[in-house]
Amino acid sequence: MNNAKPGGALGFLRKENIVAKPGFNRWLVPPASIAIHLCIGSVYAWSVFNPALSREIGIVGAAADDWSLSSIVWIFSVAIVFLGLAAAFAGKWLEEVGPRMVGVVAAFLWGGGFIIGSIGISLHQLWLIYLGYGVLGGCGLGLGYVSPVSTLLRWFPDRRGMATGMAIMGFGGGAMIAAPVKDWLLSIHARAPEYLGTEGAVKVITEGGRRFAETAAGKVEVIVASANQAAAYGGEAGIYVVGTGDTGASATFMTLGIVYFCVMIVASFMYRVPPENWKPEGWEPKEQTNRMVTREHVHIDQALKTPQFWQMWLMLCFNVTAGIGVIGVAKTMMTEIYGTTMPGIVTAAFASTYVLMISVFNMCGRFFWASTSDYIGRKMTYHCFFVLGTLLYLSIPFFASAGAESPNVIYLVGFYVATMIIFSMYGGGFATIPAYLADMFGTMHVGGIHGRLLTAWSAAGVLGPLAITSLRDMSVGKAIEDLTGRIDPAAFAEKFGAPIDQLDQLVAAKTVTVAKLMEIAPEGTIDPTPSLYNTTMYCMAGLLVIAFFANLFLRPVNERHHYREMAAQPAE
């Protein structure tokens, strides 16, 4: 007798071979999806890597050859772009092969992406990080993200919102675990650069915007580090040699890649799918009175021909755009807005905790808002996101500017609370959209339709970071220009070893920054750093207004798109 399972050598991974037996407890499935989402959700803690990667060569500060913040943020963007693309193209494949096969492939891509990224960091080859973490890791994100959604919707037809909230909750909470773990791994693998001495004891010259020092071994490029910069490595203010030391980023990437791969493989083998036409014992579908919830089904290819799909695409895209750019630079933003005005409170540890709390509210918001939508409806839930979100984004510039002019903890608290509520709704939008799709298009192909809708996430992964980095760079340039105009040229030349007319070179080499200009600015000069993100927040609020109207005008899908009517049409 041939006991081989259908599907060839990898048949044990396919959907038809993981059908649950009678009496199977459906509550055993959510832990698998949460475990996978906790692994891939660490992408939301990407900003923890920003400081290390932006000074991989200089270590205590950014050297001329270090990667810029904007180029590092785009790694996160590429990962999100490929998340959406992989989810879109794998939608039909997921329906065919099932969640276990997709989860296993996701483990290889996500874990392997970290390992390739580690090699890129050690070789200082940015393109390898883009390829590993961005492209391959991003594909792993997309496959891992969609693998449990349609499965849990079928296991929990009585609580669609709660089911998708569970499926996606782990993704929002991934950074809650990853942020402190990444900080810890970076700290244990970090190594301080070579210290030459205090600024006054070492002769430093400026050539082409770079700083150099004469040593017994010859002229070497150096960084003049402040006490705060050196303290992170247990050092003191002074001169450090560029290219020595280690931020620990490469070893951290390698460790995470191995751990994530192992966890995701184990979780993938916990997946089971319900038998055909299965429903919870004792549960019968209620007569549906909500016009926005259909009992019909729409084919995956037909869904793209409906205006409802594109309205929901726009809603998701703008809701994500408004939050994803901020997530990518969260740690940096907190430090820049309040680090100078409240240095005793907003330390590096405080900024890391801020990233952690973003993850907590992102995760809790996914379960809270998705479950709430079971009672108030998906449309009303999205109205809450857009109306409340617009008001909160408009409040952030006020809290930032007021805190700069009058350092008071109340403004920090206001900023903190506003952003936490925003991120709860950001996560809630992701968790509620699959149930919204099931209400609108039925459950027959909801996994595939959800995958295609996630291309909105890809678009937002470009729009969000592009907006926040571009507008921030414009604000930084204007701030440097304004500050330089107020500073005495002699003081400038003494501080940077070059005249003001070499400003462009000095800025390009990262020798001149807003923080260093503030050290020699006239007394009473207001630090412009806290207001660098104001314009961005106004733009994000505007996007949510547009999304509000897209949701307001959303109507049930026309009957001509229903699957049974399509089946009745004669073949062409």
Task: Describe what this molecule looks like in 3D.
The protein is mainly alpha-helical and 572 residues long. The chain is 63% helix and 4% strand. It has one domain: Growth Hormone, Chain: A (Up-down Bundle), CATH 1.20.1250.20. It is built from 23 helices and five strands. A five-stranded antiparallel beta sheet has the order 1-5-4-3-2. β2 and β3 form a beta hairpin. The C terminus is likely disordered. One of its GO terms (molecular function) is transmembrane transporter activity.
What key phrases describe this protein's structure?
transmembrane transporter activity; transmembrane helix; single chain; mainly alpha; 5-stranded antiparallel sheet; MFS transporter; transmembrane; 23 helices; MFS_trans_sf; 572 residues; disordered C terminus; Growth Hormone, Chain: A
Order of SSEs: HHHHHHHHEEEEHEHHHHHHHHHHHHHH
Mean pLDDT: 85
List unreliable stretches of 5+ residues: 565-572
Number of helices: 23
CATH architecture: Up-down Bundle
- CATH level-four homologous superfamily name: MFS general substrate transporter like domains
So what's the CATH class? Mainly Alpha
What overall form do the CA principal axes indicate? globular
Helical/strand content category? mainly alpha
Q: Percent of residues in helical segments?
A: 55-70%
The name CATH uses for the topology is: Growth Hormone, Chain: A
Q: Could you tell me the radius of gyration in angstroms?
A: 26 Å
Domain unit count: 1
Organism: Paracoccus alkanivorans
Transmembrane segments: 27-47, 67-89, 101-121, 127-149, 161-181, 251-271, 312-333, 345-369, 381-403, 409-437, 535-554
Pfam family, one: MFS_1
GO molecular function: transmembrane transporter activity
